[in-house]
Amino acid sequence: MENNFLxxxxxxxxxxxxxxxxxxxxxxITISEYEALKVWCNTHEGxxxxxxxxxFFEEISTKVKTGTIGQEEIIELKEILEKHALxxxxxxxTKADLHFLQGICYGIMADGDINKYELEMLKKMDx
Length: 127
Hints:
mainly alpha; 71% helix
């Protein structure tokens, strides 16, 4: 059970990391992108029974619950993600990358508009 819990928290972490990066990709944050962050929080609140996810989630949800997500808050979310990254490192880098990519795609699609700039930024992430 413990291993499954760790896997769930790792997936949640990498998905959020991708989501935040996907949302930030076009340089603007819409209401629907903010809603995507709230959905992530609501979906993963049940994983808060143990550390280190509890502390990580509290920091993230505090930022999201402010009701305002702009460039400054995105930077702060990225800083929180960076601070906690080692706690959710996966042995299989390919799996971590896949979960991150899933989050990026969700973040890009969250505003209902995929533009050429976002696609170019996605290409630049390769490597």
